[in-house]
Amino acid sequence: MRSPTLTRRGRIVVVVCVLATALALAGGGGAINAVILSGLVALAAGYLQVARVDRPEAVRSRPADGFVGERRTVSLTFEGAHGTAFGQSPFLARVTDVVDDGLTILGREPSLTTIGGGPVSYTVEYVSRGRRRFGPVRIEATDVFGLFVRELVVDERTTAIAYPERHPISPRFRRGLYAEEGIGRSPQREAFDRLREYARGDSLRDVHWPATAKHDELVVKAFSAERERRRVTIVGRTVDTGNGPGGEGIAAADEAAADLLASAAVSLSLAFLSDGVSVDLRLPDGSAVAHPDSTGRRELLELAALTGPGAPSDGAKADVRLVADDTDVRLHANGRPTSFTALRSEATDGSGARDDPTTPTRNRTDRPRAPLADGGERR
């Protein structure tokens, strides 16, 4: 802990006291002596107030993991040593929670608050993916006159995971993967296995109408190989960019490529999962499997958040292959190359979204309608 130091206001008071003392010595005067006495009392009281402050302990609320661009509210509660109640008198201070470069604290500069009078809260935004670090906590204690300041550092640290930025994926691209002869579906219909609840993307011919009539929700027929065929394998890697005049430039380009790869992998994975398709994701730093029921989703997001540049160690066969450089990500699926930028633009523009079950429209329902009595379909 540092010793108390004078603030700008405190230095002004010292200068005033020195000038008043000089004037008093030169010409005398009771009024000047009163100024000197008041200034000295204020300086002494301020110094003692700040010098007696003990460093408290801080407890930070752990911010929830989130995607780049999301915001979280963080609270700091101060208490006595070893988790005891706040045993000293409350004091004024400016509190700064030191965070890494991947986080931005929103709002104005830290204002004066009362330590020991309640929690201190602020809002933080995730600006880049990865394991984001909070702490230590810097406290600048001051006196009621604002004449002295003393810096206290509380070594309280917390981490949170910032997931890569996610983007919508073109429905046209997804429909191509879910076609009868496309990726994720086997054209072979094996023996009937069981009945299950309707999921978005199920074929109308699989609806079991007698069972549906007995339930509030649609029921479809499941086949013995269904679990295996509703999965998409995504394999991603980065290329050696070789940009920049030196090592730092190359490292920055590689990191940019890894960021784009992670964003593309997460965007595709979440789109597939929302469509009811499991995802096997393989990236340079490992692999993860996630299912539509949220099993494995956190592991998949953390893998994408923490992965670096490079290539997966295994040569797994990919349904969707991603190759990223520091400008874009190239995708290869069903023998058709495209780019991540093109998929994002198509999804943003709305082209290819017509008749897509994940695109809300005024008259659309995610449920197929029952067939007419003559066996046809309603229009």
TrEMBL record:
Lineage top rank: taxon: Archaea
UniProt xrefs under InterPro entries: DUF58 (IPR002881)
One Pfam family for this entry, by name? DUF58
Q: Tell me the ranges covered by the DUF58 domain, including all copies.
A: 195-312
Q: Region labeled Disordered — which residues?
A: 333-379
| Skewed-composition ranges (Basic and acidic residues) | 352-379
What name appears for this protein in its UniProt entry? Uncharacterized conserved protein, DUF58 family, contains vWF domain
